[in-house]
Write a structure and sequence with these properties.
The chain has 333 residues and is α/β, with parallel strands linked by helices. It contains 9 helices and 13 strands. The protein has one domain: Alkaline phosphatase D (PhoD) (Purple Acid Phosphatase, chain A, domain 2, 4-Layer Sandwich).
């Protein structure tokens, strides 16, 4: 009888069935021109990921016209190889600025409510999902069962974000907003609850902008130092089971690491960004927290989780066209 019920659930509710599956391979990516036919979906499909996570800039909308934005989402979604990915892989994600609707945008973007609906429709988020009922697009997903349970926490760094003032300097684009916030009070309360109540064996926090890298002059959590400190202090206080960040935005790939006092493991920020375009010339960028090298090739990220050991072993990989592998770093928690 129980077996029959389980089979029926698998047929009637495939999303529930997938949530019970152990996740071992996760692909991540951001910054994808919707009109570019030369995307890396075949390479991503080759990795046979259990899950693909968009980390922002799904399309380059940059508009207040929702008809234009929808047309760009439709173009991205209709790509034949992306459709192939959707057939066999669960896809979730978060926006950044260009798909939000305005470059480097924050809470004053006038069309954010309408843009939210287009993003959720693109991602096939069900009408009854809780994200449809609150402001912003922050959300969580859980996969697998203990002791192999993964929780993905999607942070919205656009909808509630305070304003940044321009810095007329070659070194940086914006002045730091010393007291400004990124998440907003409602999202902070939600995030703290999700972190404290997580029973997952591995927590992955998605932030479209980089959390740890603090020396470059572009968008990052360090532009809001009080908010960044609050975020890191909360993680150090809660001491969740193995947790790391994944970010996009930068058209580069790199791995950053910080040791927080009281946290029994290093905290990583894995940046994979540049599905269709990356830096046009070789350059260097300071990041005292970087592990390994800066990668400027077109890229996507792969996160492999080995559940065989007593503690999960996580491997961060940066890959590119024609099977290229640009980085591999493993850590056993």
């Amino acid at each position: 009888m129980e077996k029959t019920v389980l089979i029926l659930l698998l047929i009637i509710c495939p999303a529930w069935a997938f949530s019970q599956k152990t996740i071992s391979t996760i692909a991540v990516g951001s910054c994808s021109h919707e009109y570019d036919k030369d995307q890396m979906w075949p390479e991503i499909i080759q990795e046979k990921p259990d899950l693909f996570i968009w980390t922002g800039d799904i399309v380059y909308g940059d508009t207040h016209d929702m008809k234009v934005l929808k047309k760009k989402y439709d173009q991205q979604k209709s790509h034949p190889d992306y459709q192939r990915l959707l057939q066999n892989t669960q896809v979730i994600g978060m926006w950044d600025d260009h798909d939000y609707g305005t470059n480097d945008g924050g809470k004053y973007y006038a069309k954010k409510k309408e843009s939210k609906e287009l993003l959720l429709d693109f991602l096939d988020v069900p009408a009854n999902n809780r994200v449809r009922k609150h402001e912003g697009v922050y959300n969580t997903y859980s996969y697998g069962q203990n002791p192999n349970k993964v929780k993905v926490i999607l942070l919205d760094s656009r909808y509630f974000r305070d304003t940044l003032d321009r810095e007329m300097s070659e070194k940086r684009r914006y002045k730091p907003n010393l007291d400004g916030d990124i998440l907003g009070s409602q999202q902070w309360t939600w995030f703290e609850r999700e972190l404290k109540n997580s029973d997952a064996d591995l927590n992955i926090i998605i932030s479209s902008i980089q959390v740890l890298s603090a020396e470059h002059g572009y968008e990052k959590w360090a532009n809001f130092p009080a908010a960044r400190k609050k975020l890191l202090d909360l993680i150090a206080e809660v001491k969740p089971k193995p947790t790391f960040f994944v970010s996009g935005d930068r058209h580069i790939a790199e791995l950053s690491k910080i040791d927080l006092e009281g946290l029994p493991y290093p905290l990583f920020d894995f940046t994979a960004s540049g599905l269709t375009h990356s830096w046009g010339r070789v350059s260097e960028e300071k990041n005292a927290l970087r592990v390994g090298k800066l990668i400027i090739n077109k890229n996507f990220g792969v996160i492999e989780v080995d559940w065989q050991a007593d503690q999960p072993k996580v491997t961060f990989l940066v890959k590119g066209n024609e099977g290229a592998e640009y980085m591999r770093h493993s850590f056993t928690y």
